[in-house]
Automatic annotation (TrEMBL):
<feature type="compositionally biased region" description="Polar residues">
    <location>
        <begin position="1"/>
        <end position="14"/>
    </location>
</feature>
<dbReference type="InterPro" id="IPR013785">
    <property type="entry name" value="Aldolase_TIM"/>
</dbReference>
<keyword id="KW-0489">Methyltransferase</keyword>
<keyword id="KW-0479">Metal-binding</keyword>
<dbReference type="GO" id="GO:0051539">
    <property type="term" value="F:4 iron, 4 sulfur cluster binding"/>
</dbReference>
<keyword id="KW-0004">4Fe-4S</keyword>
<feature type="binding site">
    <location>
        <begin position="251"/>
        <end position="253"/>
    </location>
    <ligand>
        <name>S-adenosyl-L-methionine</name>
    </ligand>
</feature>
<dbReference type="InterPro" id="IPR040072">
    <property type="entry name" value="Methyltransferase_A"/>
</dbReference>
<dbReference type="InterPro" id="IPR027492">
    <property type="entry name" value="RNA_MTrfase_RlmN"/>
</dbReference>
<dbReference type="InterPro" id="IPR058240">
    <property type="entry name" value="rSAM_sf"/>
</dbReference>
<dbReference type="GO" id="GO:0019843">
    <property type="term" value="F:rRNA binding"/>
</dbReference>
<keyword id="KW-0411">Iron-sulfur</keyword>
<keyword id="KW-0408">Iron</keyword>
<keyword id="KW-0698">rRNA processing</keyword>
<feature type="domain" description="Radical SAM core">
    <location>
        <begin position="125"/>
        <end position="368"/>
    </location>
</feature>
<dbReference type="GO" id="GO:0002935">
    <property type="term" value="F:tRNA (adenine(37)-C2)-methyltransferase activity"/>
</dbReference>
<feature type="binding site">
    <location>
        <position position="228"/>
    </location>
    <ligand>
        <name>S-adenosyl-L-methionine</name>
    </ligand>
</feature>
Length: 381
């Protein structure tokens, strides 16, 4: 397109701000992790049980990482089952668990109470252990290169369904079920199935449960929690006001509206400029560096000139190190027209970004042999 060619107006789609799941579904059962401390106490009292036991139950779940009443020996034997039933309904049932990378990567396919399928991936590295969690069953963002997006949105997950994935990962680490012996879960990324900011209320509640100190929560550092989004601009700005210094990961994938309209359909509602402006505002308000996620797709978005354009777009908001670009080798979906970029093209993309002062890394790939891309295992099932 020449400089004198008028830029076509992007066609607006009917994508709403929050992609709602089909109505009429039963809600997940209420769980301890859905509630704050006062809510847990109130729920027990409504059930005719002693409210002061809520703190003990919270300690078992968030500190001891158990919801098994048989392990709660500090509770009256006659009340254990009833107390556990009130606050620990079963939320996740494992369908399949697959391992890769010599046992340091573990992917689990979960069945929710209503039969919906979601996935989480636990990844152990030398200095940290990270779990990637789902926030929705399916996804309504319809990005064509993403396995989850091809299946559409089934429903939002509850805060407790999100948290329970993390507690399971923390338990696996603590009990030495991941190669390398007992350890501690340190990081959580909301990069599994779904668009986290389209399930805003539950995701923010989950973040609080994860970062509140034990026994109110899991006690993780908010700086080790990353929330991703394809660019729901009002929700990015709302998250900046929450007062929880999480890391924002913006799945940009293209620096120009013409391409991004095609591969990230929400761009027809919120343009590249609007989306990057919101990310910059998040960084300004929170003093937290934003991560720009960029899945490298062969001959689609990996041209050298797009690297230059991406750097210019990001630098236009300021050069104070507010952003870091994370290039992602594409997890290829069988039958998709999108394939992984050539190594040489990725290397040139990095070179051009760094030449313009943009901090850049290439994400370490994990679990290629176990369909670790979000939605692949659920789709196969």
């Amino acid at each position: 397109m020449s400089e004198n060619t008028p830029t076509p107006e992007p066609q607006r789609t009917s994508l709403p701000l929050v992609m709602e799941a089909p109505r009429g579904r039963a809600k997940p059962p209420r769980h301890l992790a859905d509630l704050d401390e006062a809510g847990r106490k109130a729920l027990l009292e409504e059930s005719g049980l002693p409210g002061f036991r809520a703190k003990q139950l919270s300690h078992h779940y968030f500190a001891r990482l158990t919801s098994d009443p048989a392990e709660m020996t500090d509770l009256p034997a006659a009340q254990r089952e009833e107390l556990a039933a009130a606050l620990f309904p079963r939320l996740l049932t494992p369908v399949r668990t697959m391992e890769a990378d010599k046992g340091t990567t573990r992917k689990t396919l979960w069945r929710l109470f209503d039969g919906a399928l979601v996935e989480s991936v636990l990844m152990r590295y030398p200095q940290r252990a990270t779990i990637c969690v789902s926030s929705q069953a399916g996804c309504g963002m319809a990005c064509p290169f993403c396995a989850t997006g091809q299946g559409g949105l089934q429903r939002n997950m509850s805060a407790a369904e999100i948290v329970d994935q993390v507690v399971d990962g923390a338990r696996a680490m603590a009990r030495g079920e991941v190669a390398g012996g007992p350890g501690r879960l340190s990081n959580v990324v909301f990069m599994g199935m779904g668009e986290p900011l389209a399930n805003y209320k539950a995701v923010v509640a989950a973040v609080h449960r994860l970062t509140d100190p034990a026994p109110a929560g899991l006690g993780l550092s908010a700086r080790n929690v990353t929330v991703s989004t394809v660019g729901l601009v009002p929700r990015i700005l709302q998250l900046a006001e929450e007062g929880v210094p999480v890391t924002l990961a913006l799945s940009l994938h293209a620096p120009d509206d013409e391409l991004r309209n095609d591969i990230v359909p929400i761009n027809t509602r919120y343009s590249v400029a609007e989306t990057v402006d919101a990310a910059w505002e998040f960084a300004r308000r929170t003093k937290r560096r934003v991560s720009v996620e960029y899945a490298m797709m062969r001959d689609v978005n990996d041209q050298a000139w797009r690297a230059d354009l991406l750097a210019d777009v990001l630098n236009a908001r300021g050069d104070w190190g507010w952003v870091h670009v994370n290039l992602i080798p594409l997890n290829e979906v069988p039958g998709s027209r999108f394939t992984r970029s050539r190594d040489a093209d990725t290397a040139e993309f990095v070179r051009r970004l760094e030449a313009k002062g943009i901090s850049t890394t290439i994400r370490d790939t994990r679990g290629d042999d176990i369909d670790a891309a979000c939605g692949q295992l659920a789709a196969a099932e």
